[in-house]
Amino acid sequence: MAAKKNEAKIHGRDNALNKFQDYLGEFVYGGIDGSVTTFAVVAGAAGANLESSVVIILGFANLIADGFSMSVGSYLSTKSEIQNYEKHKKIEYWEVDHLPEKEKEEIREIYADKGFEGELLEKVVDTITANKDRWVDVMMKEELEMSEESRSPIKMAATTFISFLILGFIPLFIYILDYFVPLGENINLFLVSSTLTTLVFMGIGFLKSYVTQTNHLRGILETLLLGGIAAILAYFVGDILEQLFIS
Q1: Measured between alpha carbons, how far is 230 from 44 in angstroms, rounded to an integer?
Q2: Which of 45, 123, 141, 246 has its CA 20 to 30 A from that of 34?
């Protein structure tokens, strides 16, 4: 029991986020894209000196359209992986049924490469090939290097969409607040939005480092850097376009 706990700790599976592990990566992926693209819209609008109402319209258009597009992509990608796995699994079952000696030899070669030999090798081959399901499962993992996708395409899409909406909404929050409750000219809306978005980037960077099991500080700095570059580019594009078409 202690050994299993230690192994779980090493692989990062022993904390409160464990039950969300299967979908956490998708949440991070959707959150990064949602916050970065929405803040890029905000930055571009700020560079063009657009009013809060315009920022809100552009921001929400991006949230809904881009978020839905990403969720559809996530759904189709996951479903495609499942279908591809099932297709190859059917092929392996056919080969086991119609070409058993060839498939048995492949099992022998796989485990011979792992260092098994002689009587032990034959026992391993006989044990595996004694059960068709086990036989096919080994062929899928060892020969084709394919693992069965256990995550639901619908849940993957929903996770992406929800993450995109929630985290992508944060850069817009201060503009929405200002629209309904004017905050006055002394409040720099873009600065407040930048601060809130920076906090979001830091949180996403931390979660990304958890998913990839890498250094937390590095994950945070990478996300801040990428988000910052996107925002700077959008801001100056907005500023240039404002000078060309509005000024």
Answers
A1: 10
A2: 246
